[in-house]
Design goal:
The chain is mainly α. 67% of the residues lie in helices and 4% in strands. The chain is built from eight helices and two strands; from the N terminus they run αββααααααα. A hairpin with a 2-residue loop joins β1 and β2.
Amino acid sequence: MLRLRKLLGSHEAIVVSDELIGLNPQLCWTDVWAFERRIAQTEAAEGEAGLSAAAAAVALYRGNFLPADAEQPWTVKARERLRAKFVRLVETVAQADEAAGHWEKAIAHYLKGLEADDLVETFHLGLMRCYRALGRPAEAITAFRRLRQTLSVVLGIAPSPAAEALAQELREGSAAPYP
């Protein structure tokens, strides 16, 4: 503990209580704490303020919690909890961008989501819808192929019927751009 305090440059940076050791939130900043504070702001706000807080939370997410410790059982619960919150935030923000016709912003959010977890089918579907709306069917089909390949290789499953139907629409050329 002395070494850690030396590394942090402050004796008060480490808090010991009830046989637990932790960082002093008054003196230390962590991306997890900042992410969870933004989520709390998102839940407390409504409308545009909530979406703005959600977008800020999405920007704070840096990927899996303690990836070097992925095999440690004690990290699994926190990792999955944070990942699930991130997925919900990306879906919320990107779908709001879609609804407002902000296709490029929605694409950026879906791509950020895919960087963190490329097994989330709703991110791929969102990309397909956005590219379709922008009149870019080749990119939409490419997004579908990426989805199909990823699901096949990693999980051994096929895309959902909704993804297959959207891809078929795109192939047939019946998916005209949105006005």
